[in-house]
Amino acid sequence: MVIRLLMRYLANNEQLIQRMAESYPMRRAAQLVVSLMYRTKSLAREQGLHEMTPERFKSFVNMFKNNVRQELEGVKKELNSKKKN
C-alpha cells in the first residue's frame, strides 16, 4: 500500500518526470529503441517480411516453432547425457 502511494506520487510528479526525461540514460534508451526499430524495419524489407501474406506468416511461425522444439529436444538430450556421465 505504501509502495503504491509512493509510486503514484513519483509518477505524478511532473518536475521529476521532466528531469528523468532529460537525463542521459533515458535519452540513450530512446535512441536505442528508435535505432532498433529502424534496423528491424529494414531487415523486414530485405527479407520480404513486410509483404507477407497470412499463409506465409503461418508457415513462418510453424517453421519457427519446429526449430525451437528441435533445439529444446537437443538441449534436453545433451543435459541428460551429461547427467549420466
Topology:
Layout: H1 2-11, H2 14-21, H3 24-46, H4 54-84
Protein name: Protein NCBP2AS2 homolog
Structure, explained:
InterPro entries: NCBP2-AS2 (IPR042407). It comes from Drosophila kikkawai. This is Protein NCBP2AS2 homolog. By secondary structure, the chain is mostly helical. It has 2 domains: 1-50, no CATH class; 52-84. Helices cover 85% and strands 0% of the residues. The protein contains 4 helices and no strands. The protein has helices at 2-11, 14-21, 24-46, 54-84. It is extended, with a radius of gyration of 23 Å.
Number of strands: 0
What count of structural domains? Answer: 2
In the predicted model, the low-confidence regions spanning at least 5 consecutive residues are: none
The global form is extended
DSSP strand content: under 5%
Largest sheet: none
Query: Which structural category do the helix and sheet elements fall into?
Result: mainly alpha
Give the overall pLDDT as a whole number.
89
- Helices, by number, come to 4
- CA radius of gyration is 23 Å
